Amino acid sequence: MADWLTAILLGLVEGLTEFIPVSSTGHMLLLGHFLGFQSTGKTFEVVIQLGALLAIISVYF
């Protein structure tokens, strides 16, 4: 699967599960496992969560 498509899918999962009381990172890791995505490290997880941070900033400021 293309890297950009994997990133979009993981970003959607992260965004949909970020604000409910479940582990959004856990869902992201499970989806990545089922898609065969091999993360290069924690950098991808940090970058993908920046979307949630930007959403919070745009809503409250």
Word description of this protein:
- The protein is mainly alpha-helical and 61 residues long.
- The chain has one domain (3-60).
- The protein contains four helices and no strands.
- The protein has helices at residues 3-17, 24-35, 42-48, 50-60.
- Helix 1 packs antiparallel against helix 2 (24-35).
- It is globular and about 35 Å long.
- 5% of the residues are buried.
- The model has no long low-confidence stretch (mean pLDDT 75).
Main attributes?
61 residues, mainly alpha, 4 helices
Secondary-structure element order, N to C: HHHH
Radius of gyration, whole Å? 12 Å
Number of helices: 4
Helix and strand content put the structural class at: mainly alpha
User: How many strands, which pairing sense, and closed or not: the largest β-sheet?
Assistant: none
* Annotation, overall tally of beta strands: 0
Residue-averaged pLDDT: 75
The domain tally reads 1
Work out the strand percent. Answer: under 5%
Enumerate the spans where pLDDT stays under 50 for 5 or more consecutive residues.
none
Helix content range of the residues, please?
over 70%
Report how far the terminal alpha carbons are from each other.
37 Å
Shape: globular
